[in-house]
Amino acid sequence: xxxxxxxxxxxxxxxxxxxxxxxxxxxxxxxxxxxxxxxxxxxxxxxxxxxxxxxxxxxxxxxxxxxxxxxxx
Length: 73
Prior knowledge:
Order of helices and strands: EEHHH
Number of strands: 2
Helix content: 40-55%
Shape: elongated
């Protein structure tokens, strides 16, 4: 395990993953919102996704760089 900085809140933590334990549930919810958006829409930009889902453009970009979204691009 490494000493990391949470990608969402900026707090330091020691665990696997990109986000701390406090932010993990929020991250899962936002990922679900973005996945649902992709299922319902075929035309999108990062800004469009952010506006329509309420997920920040920073997090949308982070999710799109994640392995789970590689087949959706």
